[in-house]
Amino acid sequence: MLDPVAFTVGPFSIRWYAICIVSGLILAVYLAMKEAPRKKMIPDDILDFILIAFPLAILGARLYYVIFEWSYYGKHSLIEIFQIWNGGLAIYGGLITGALVLYFFSQRRLINPVDFLDIAAPSVLIAQSIGRWGNFFNQEAYGAVVKNLNYLPSFIRNNMYIDGAYHQPTFLYESLWNLLGFALLMILRRRSKFFRQGELAAFYLIWYGFGRMIIEGMRTDSLMFLGVRVSQWLSAALILLGICIMIYQRKNKPPIIKNERRILCLKLLIL
């Protein structure tokens, strides 16, 4: 079993879970800032958004998890709510919080939220792909018992030996699925005739929603609501929303909200 703690600094323990999340975030921000000028958007807007949204998304992801696990947290010390290394975070809570932050951020900065989401789509997928490895180090978010995992490298196989049995490495399946989606978006987004405005974001919703719905069915630690996994409810909603966006954009001309005007105004103010 791998140690979930990477190293310690004095009394503080730095966990692999945090390293995976932060590594994914750094790469995502870098890629989004590189892409921003192509959408006539100021790269600093990406960084400013992350500085606001990331801590709030962590809180939202934890709150989401605690709400659906209140049967446990309601009977234990409230201090455990703040121990995010115990129980973890729920990605959908982070996505919902991020969407709310983007709404208010785009209004204040006068940016086009649709273009922002198109820029962010591949970056979010690669961040999620890397972040899932945090579940691997924590030995969580795994699937049902299997006889063997001989098709996997020994370090993965050994860490998936939990409670005397091998388990499906669902973290790996989702990580690879997100990585494939990232690669597709990076290739296709350069083809302006293939995707219309908003459709990169729609592709993300459909791709991630479909993969998460299938993989979630393999897990044994899912949050439940009305007898169905909560993430599967939300995955279905993401797929439906993505399809609706695709249909709408194909039937209607995408709205034109130009960021060139804002960039020109900022340059004039600087001069």
UniProtKB/TrEMBL annotation:
Pathway: Protein modification; lipoprotein biosynthesis (diacylglyceryl transfer). Catalyzes the transfer of the diacylglyceryl group from phosphatidylglycerol to the sulfhydryl group of the N-terminal cysteine of a prolipoprotein, the first step in the formation of mature lipoproteins. It comes from Streptococcus cristatus ATCC 51100. GO terms for biological process: lipoprotein biosynthetic process. It is found in: Cell membrane. Belongs to the Lgt family. Its main location: membrane. This is Phosphatidylglycerol--prolipoprotein diacylglyceryl transferase. Keywords: Cell membrane, Membrane, Transferase, Transmembrane, Transmembrane helix. InterPro entries: Lgt. The gene is lgt. HAMAP family: Lgt.
